[in-house]
Predict the structure.
Amino acid sequence: MNSFLSTPVNRRGILLGGAALLGAAGIAACSPGGSSNSSGSGSKTLNVLFFGPQDKADQTSKVAEPFRKANPGVEVKFTGVNGTDWNDFFTKVLTQIAAGNAPDIVSVATEGVQLFAQKKLALPLDDYVKRDKDQLAPYFKDVHPSLIEAMMYNGSLYELPTDFNAGNMYFNTNLLKSSGLELPGPDWTMDDFKTIAGGLKKNPDVVPFDWVVRLWGSWTSFMYANGGNLVKEEKYSGGDWLWNDFYTNDAAAKGRSGGWKWGEPTANSDAVLESLDFMLELTNGGLSAKPDVGGGATLQGLFSSNKIGMSIGGGFWAGGLHNAGMANGSFDVQYFPKWKQQRHLFGTGGYGIFESSKNKDLAWEFLKTLIEPASIEVLTAGNSTTPSRRSMMTAERYSTTTGPKNWKVFYDTLDKLPDTAPIPAPPYYNAMATALNQRTTEAMSSGNVKQALNGLQADLESAAKAIGG
């Protein structure tokens, strides 16, 4: 979530990436042993592609040590694929497949799940899950159904989530104190938000609220709270096989489906327009700076330097702010404020199996080890993200390492705010992200929000049409 959400892409990249993906299903089908489902039919090396630099991949590969020890002769190789965006990443992946170097497993966040599934690059996990349901029952009992549903597409499950991040609001408690303010309560509103921002403005050289342009945790958080979305929210049918087996008595699973179906674009609806217009109002009123396109690293640096009072962040900000030098107690977190509703967005992550893998059974056995608490502990080390398993959210995790004091907010966003939903991530996600970045920048520069969102609407309609959606 923290590394996959925010990098800008260009139009040429969209076209190249889209063209490559259209041929992906054919590549997978022609790959030697692509239809094999036996671990004995291929090598005893599982190749895992990791979206990130090789040093980070090497660090993450430690998660495979228990699996290696339990399976003598089996090697798990993590290969970092660094890229500027998802298109860049997937294009490099497809190049490897075409060259006969098909990996077995890939790390994929919310942004890529439907992209992989629609192009038939990813293997549905349904049969494996049904077969091993007794073994998996403790995991599903420990994971909120929202995270599971976000990993489904057209009735099938494609990943077992290991982590997630919801868009909460972080506060610099030093600046709150110097402004005579306190952390707001869980039921705070947009009026409270504006009051706090006005109080923080009294500090010289401080931006009361700052944000970046991206789909996760941007002005899109305000959009969700205002009852809007960039596309119509629908659900795929199916999924009963999973919900009936694992979530029968879970009230939070009521009404779950076969995954989110992102329908026709609604980017210029009244709720969306009002949300982006509010961001322009904040900027013009001196309560926010003009945002940059990109990730949150710059914001974390400014936040830790007491230059920002509030910003949107998930559980990964706890680790990021700690690494930026903020001591436990110098920052805290609360739910996102209520507007028309108190709805949050989130992104989740995990690992999927390639359809072209020669070692599907072995890959599945490895995937099962990744959802064990000890493995998730490695994957979320330093609170770099939020564990998907509820039982791992403890006071010790935060109080003895990074903070914040109000850490319960992270999982309570799922447990206590049932409207919390994944970011919109249709199969044309990359085109959506690019268009959002460009049109948001246009709106903030020109001041003409309506014109920019009419352009965004046209961009999304073209992108959906291009994939037949």
